[in-house]
Amino acid sequence: MxxxxxxxxxxxxxxxxxxxxxxxxVYTCIAMNQFGVARSSGNLIxxxxxxxxxxxxxxxxxxxxxxxxxxxxxKDPSIEVVFSWxxxxxxxxxxxxxxxFERVGGESVGDxxxxxxxxxxxxxxxxxxQTAMDTLSExxxxxxxxxxxxxxxxxxxxxxxxxxxxxxxxxxxxxSPIQIYTVQTRTPFSVGWQAVSTVPEVINGRTHTATVVDLxxxxxxxxxxxxxxxxxxxxxxxxxxxxxxxxxxxTVAPANVSGGGGSRSELVIMWESVPEELQNGExxxxxxxFRPLGSSSWTKAVAASVEASKYIYRNxxxxxxxxFEVKVGVFNQEGVGTLSPIYIVYSGEDEPQLAPSGTSVxxxxxxxxxxxxxxxxxxxxxxxxxxxxxxxxxxxxKDSTTGKVRVFGNITAKNITNLKANTMYFVTLRAxxxxxxxxxxxxVNATTKKSPPSQRPANIAWKLTxxxxxLNWEHVKTMENESEVLGYKILYRQNRQSTTHIxxxxxxxxxxxxxxxxxxxxxxxxxxxxxxxSSSEEIRxxxxxxLSSKGRHICYSFEIAILVHILNSSFCY
Length: 573
Description:
The chain is mainly beta. It has 5 domains: 51-145, Immunoglobulin-like (Sandwich), CATH 2.60.40; 152-244, Immunoglobulin-like, CATH 2.60.40.10; 255-346, Immunoglobulins (Immunoglobulin-like, Sandwich); 357-447, Immunoglobulins (Immunoglobulin-like), CATH 2.60.40.10; 461-565, Sandwich (Immunoglobulin-like). The protein is 1% helix and 46% strand. It is built from 1 helix and 47 strands. A 5-stranded mixed β-sheet has the order 6-14-13-9-10, with no helix packed on it. Strands 25, 26, 28, 29 and 30 form a 5-stranded antiparallel β-sheet that branches. Strands 33, 34, 36, 37 and 38 form a 5-stranded antiparallel β-sheet that branches. The longest helix has 5 residues, at 544-548. It starts with a strand and ends in an 8-residue tail after the last strand. One of its GO terms (biological process) is axon guidance. One of its GO terms (molecular function) is cell-cell adhesion mediator activity. Residues 49-137 form the Ig-like domain. Pfam families: fn3, I-set, Ig_3.
């Protein structure tokens, strides 16, 4: 509780300390002398004091966040208040189009919103409150922390065949101390930048030094450095100059050493080429070493091409399909490098020396023959057999063969399809392996069946009684060059998407006992030695319910199972 104190000054003025509402009213000044008395009155109006109730406070934020600095007051209702903000002493002009700053709040609220705050928004913010009676202000400081700026001046101080010493200077910390540096590298062979292994860095003043290890010799590298702090990982530095590591003896042997095949008296050796980044220097090539299994001395050969991946050794004394021990190594101008493990590779083989026997051919239809034969018993001297080749031709073929098919392994039968009807075909067989094909067997022949009947079943009649479909049609007559009709095949289904059921019969009539929940689709084909003939036109038989709606007799459906009976009579009753 404040006590009001009133003083009369020497000039007659009235001074009031700790004014309260009780001090409001009319005050009259009276002056007197020998000439008389003078009076003057004035009205004292007392207003509520303006107070900043919620001032802005210091804030620590991360780049990209949005914050609100509060500035709220209590005031006399009759007094107008004006809010303004200073940033580092400069007035913020909200009338300009600003991306980050915005004044928010009502009459007694002057909050400042900063959207998507950036590093350059760090500093002091002052809220100024102005009325006709007084001026108030409060100041707060914002610290904006971000990821580090890119390190500077990355350079290579020293390079060996497998290491490189780097120097760099730190970039801007952006109000958060740098906690880690990561060295990245790339080569002409890599996809993008990759972090690499380093030894602990050394700090000499403002310069940082780190040694990158486990590099490949004779490869061009460029480096960059990325800094990180508690906020995150910053932008990378500019790349260093491109520098090649020193050469050294190659240490990676060729992979996937294999071989085999080729012609008689040949040893074929293959391997996977060593990529350029693992060749370790100029003058790169391959050393090939081999010896017959059981021998103590090695034969050595050189392939000087960096792209070489195959070597063929020819010698008439090589036994067919003989095992050799093989290993492949690498070298460059620095010396001879690593050799691969020993692999077993077989020499080339002879073509099969024996022809298949027991060949027979059977006609299956107008377009298909079945060929069968006895397997060839082989050994190393008669030539390995990997499979068989079937050759076939017609009597009037212009070429020696019309067609050729191969079977792999110990298969002794093969069907030949897509042949001409009623045509004699000659067939022969021969065995094959990696060296080629052997002698042909004695030709055999067979004639394909006549063509299937060309006429379709016609004059199809049907009758629907008690969930039975009774079918009847005319016998199909064949032409002289067509196979005789042996029977008929009836295909029926409830709709185009459902399963098709098949009934075969030797007669020209049939009975189907089926549930009638949907319409039925039926077609009939001829069967003959030459294959199936053409289908009849598709017949749609409506459901019993649709027939009932037209005045026909209603038949109740049987169970879902389909029962089929063949009738010897011309129609069913």
